[in-house]
């Protein structure tokens, strides 16, 4: 949205809200001389260029992959969002990201052992992955007449001679999934359906979809640090604060189980903590 304003400003138009709370166009260059108009355009373009550099850092390959591997979004969502921007109204941005995704796919996932990929899906998951239509097809195949078995064997031989389609290409060639359950939880689709149809690609998709947006709960950690570093604790060193916050976060996540009950550090129970610490040190010495 920030870049949209600058792109319109380069064309000499901005959108403002008047006194009646109605959005209207304001032409910037109507009352300016040619020299001032030219300088203003240059400044706006320089500012747009700098912001676009930072904007490009936000849309990394990992970000694009997380959208593309969402079965209900794929490339369509990115095209709807980015085709509104003049800087994205070419096919170059998609070719760049497609090349990056293809390179990661071919280097790390495409040649993955089929047995390893299949081990991720249990028998129960395979059964649950079959939707209503697939179950009907499986049932109809079990009721084929003997005279049609020969025709089916010929079809299987013909299909065996055809080249196997790349999993990534096949996934991207299909339209987005229209299922409200998978819109909320895309990993569920890769677990229920994708792991069966795209056993290798599902590994790549889950790897990108499970990347945390942040390495920590930023806002909550800032609040916790603020409560920890009070005016009476202004001499705490930064590495002490960092270690304490890491232990707190790891303890809440279940990654680290402290020997001492950290919950007792709040309030007036610090004497009990000291007593427990002394007992632990004595037990270790003995």
Residue share in helix: 55-70%
Number of helices: 16
Structural class: mainly alpha
Q: How large is the radius of gyration?
A: 29 Å
Beta-strand segment tally: 2
Taking the sheet with the most strands, its summary is: 2 strands, antiparallel
Number of domains: 2
Residue-averaged pLDDT: 73
Q: In one word, what is the shape?
A: flat
Tell me the distance between the termini: 65 Å
Beta-strand portion reads under 5%
Q: In order across it, which strands form the biggest sheet? A: 1-2
The helix-strand sequence is HEEHHHHHHHHHHHHHHH
Poorly predicted regions are 120-137
Notes on the structure:
- The structure is a single chain.
- By secondary structure, this protein is mainly alpha-helical.
- The chain has 2 domains: about 60-155 and about 165-210, no CATH class; about 220-285.
- It has 16 helices and 2 strands.
- A two-stranded antiparallel sheet has the order 1-2.
- Helix 7 (about 125-130) packs across helix 12 (about 185-195).
- The N and C termini lie far apart (about 65 Å).
- The model is unreliable at about 120-135 (pLDDT under 50).
Q: What would you say about this model in short?
A:
With 286 residues, the chain is mostly helical.
Features:
286 residues, HATC_C_dom, single chain, mainly alpha, protein dimerization activity
Secondary structure elements and pairings:
Blueprint: H1 2-10, E1 13-17, E2 23-27, H2 34-58, H3 61-68, H4 74-82, H5 92-109, H6 114-118, H7 123-129, H8 132-142, H9 146-161, H10 167-173, H11 180-184, H12 186-197, H13 199-209, H14 218-228, H15 238-253, H16 270-285
Antiparallel strand pairs: 1-2
Helix pairs in contact: 1-2, 7-12, 12-13
Organism: Fusarium oxysporum f. sp. raphani
Domain HAT C-terminal dimerisation: 167-250
GO molecular function: protein dimerization activity
């Amino acid at each position: 949205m920030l870049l949209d304003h600058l792109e319109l400003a380069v064309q000499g138009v901005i959108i403002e809200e008047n006194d009646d709370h109605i959005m209207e166009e304001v032409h910037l260059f109507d009352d300016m001389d040619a020299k001032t108009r030219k300088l203003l355009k240059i400044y706006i373009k320089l500012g747009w260029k700098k912001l676009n550099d930072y904007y490009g850092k936000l849309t990394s390959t990992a970000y694009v992959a997380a959208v593309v591997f969402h079965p209900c979004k794929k490339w369509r969502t990115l095209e709807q969002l980015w085709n509104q921007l003049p800087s994205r109204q070419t096919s170059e941005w998609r070719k760049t990201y497609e090349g990056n995704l293809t390179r990661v796919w071919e280097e790390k996932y495409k040649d993955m052992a089929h047995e390893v990929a299949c081990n991720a899906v249990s028998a129960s998951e395979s059964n649950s992955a079959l939707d209503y239509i697939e179950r009907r097809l499986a049932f109809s195949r079990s009721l084929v007449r003997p005279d049609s078995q020969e025709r089916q064997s010929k079809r299987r031989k013909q299909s065996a001679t055809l080249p196997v389609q790349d999993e990534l290409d096949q996934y991207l060639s299909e339209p987005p999934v229209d299922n409200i359950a998978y819109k909320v939880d895309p990993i569920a689709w890769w677990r229920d359906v994708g792991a069966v149809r795209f056993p290798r690609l599902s590994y790549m998709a889950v790897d990108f979809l499970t990347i945390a947006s942040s390495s920590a709960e930023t806002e909550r950690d800032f609040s916790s640090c603020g409560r920890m570093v009070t005016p009476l604790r202004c001499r705490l060193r930064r590495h002490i604060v960092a270690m304490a916050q890491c232990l707190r976060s790891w303890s809440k996540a279940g990654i680290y189980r402290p020997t001492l009950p950290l919950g007792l550090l709040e309030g007036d129970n610090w004497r009990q903590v000291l007593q427990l610490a002394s007992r632990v040190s004595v037990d270790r010495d003995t």
